[in-house]
Specification:
Layout: E1 2-6, H1 9-21, E2 26-29, H2 33-43, E3 46-50, H3 53-60, E4 72-76, E5 82-87, H4 94-105, E6 108-110, H5 114-118, E7 130-132, H6 134-143, E8 147-151, E9 164-165, E10 179-182, E11 198-201, E12 206-212, H7 218-231, E13 239-245, H8 252-261, E14 265-268, H9 270-274, H10 283-289, H11 295-300, E15 305-312, E16 323-329, E17 335-340, H12 351-359, E18 362-366, H13 367-373, E19 382-386, H14 391-403, E20 407-412, H15 422-428, E21 434-438, H16 443-451, E22 452-453, E23 459-463, H17 471-483, E24 487-491, H18 501-510, E25 518-523, E26 531-536, E27 549-553, E28 559-561, E29 564-566, H19 572-575
Parallel strand pairs: 1-2, 1-3, 3-4, 5-6, 8-9, 8-10, 10-11, 12-13, 13-14, 17-20, 17-21, 18-19, 18-20, 22-29, 23-24
Antiparallel strand pairs: 4-5, 7-11, 12-16, 15-16, 24-27, 25-26, 25-27, 28-29
Length: 581
Amino acid sequence: MIGLISATAAGAVAAQRLASAWPERTRVYEGPVRDAVERAFGECEQVVCFLATGAVVRLIAPLLADKGTDPGVVCVDEGGRFAVSLVGGHAGGANALAVEVAEVLGAEPVVTTATDAVGVPGLDTLGLPVEGDVAGVSRALLDGESVELDLEIAWPLPPLPSNVRRPAPDAQAERGGPAIVVTDRVLDADGHPAGDARVVLRPPSLVVGVGASKGAPVDEVLGLIESALRDAGLSPRSLAELATVDAKADEPGLVEAATRLGVPLVTHSAEELAAVEVPNPSDAPLAAVGTPSVAEAAALVGGGELLVPKRKSERADGRPAMATCAVVRRPARGRLAVVGLGPGARDLLTPRAKAELRRASVLVGLDQYVDQIRDLLRPGTRILESGLGAEEERARTAVAEARRGQAVALIGSGDAGVYAMASPALAEASDDIDVIGVPGVTAALAAAAILGAPLGHDHVSISLSDLHTPWEVIERRVRAAAEADIVVTFYNPRSRGRDWQLPKALAILAGHREPTTPVGVVRNASRPDGSHRLTTLAALDPATVDMMTVVTVGNTATREIAGRMVTPRGYRWQENPEGAE
């Protein structure tokens, strides 16, 4: 919850704007400002104060306890010009909140955290539990010192600056200095001098399979899990989930154990578990729930390395154990984000796309598209770019990098799933990596917005490029659209080597539509050198069209109205305007 506090009428107006924009996220505090701040500090994860920064500093100073638990605080000035991240920039989320507040209010976000200012990811903002000297290692990163990266577990991290290096395998004796370690193990000095700064990142790599008799006490389950991790030298902060059989989905001891550990309880069917090969099968669970293994099989069902074989709980009174567990380290999963960049204008690049570009340690894309967004990438991003015609190679490269445990962004123009890179990439990808699709504004939509409302009813997009699709197939689709009276947007309409397909397609449509049917021609939609014109099916000169153009042909109901191309939502609109929505 975000607490909103104001002291003046102008501040109250701005606070209400945030409250209206985020009704489920905000709470407006009224009454004396000091009392409101104290209440919000105790009740909210974040606070936005519409006050001078000096006043807020004095108000919150007595309330500050620990940067890990204090709420993030953002200040907005009286004129609503600036949203200042005051405290809790990373741990409290104030830096990100300042950006969000600024977007709503039309203000300028002010973030002074050093890592954010220079584009280096904060070590405490990576979404992983973090231990150690975050400030010391961050200072080393910013000062350009050599920082060792020890990836005991490959994990899709964001890009890190060039002064972060991986030691050679035989360089154990030379290790020392600031370090970032990615591991699920409990570490000792590990060769690093005690005075050296070190940060440990805990990836969620461990799965604990659990079995339990009916009524197993939660303390017995938790004690077993904790002892299994401790004896194996594993950190409970790397625990990803508890796993068990479906029949135990509502077992109170397991449900409560997962809640206390802060992880989900994942269940699998007995048939699924019975198919998993385990080292220690047993007749008891087979008779009880239909599988010879619960703990080991549930931990291994997703693959991985069995670190702790099945073990039973121990009871002080000597009675039979009521719980079993096993621990598996799952293989790291790389991350592939397929990102649509939109039609080219920076303000049509979505915030989600920007976030994925900054999260990726490897960027794969067409060279001209990389140039569009190069300034958005974090320092240290590895760029793999290639020219036209290498689409399948780029898809294979992106998937291969993700399989190596990298965080990869594969970019395409418009929406990456529309005549772009998502299709070849997903054809290569298997279920051993995580794939995230980031939608973008397509060329057809960008062009339609410029033309008016040509896509107000049923419509279809057809590529006229026969490089990958036989012309016979393309022609059949054009004829179907013509006969069905559907608005058509042509992608890849004409190039130097393909100058006859567009005239042929237009002739097919002309057999079913009047010569006066509106046609919109948009080149480089949304870009500074963009152009557009509205013509007719009979008047369109195909020679004026190139590969940077999309051509939208209306249906029999499409009209030019006040210089705009409009297709009604329903044909009744023309017959009964009063009844139209």
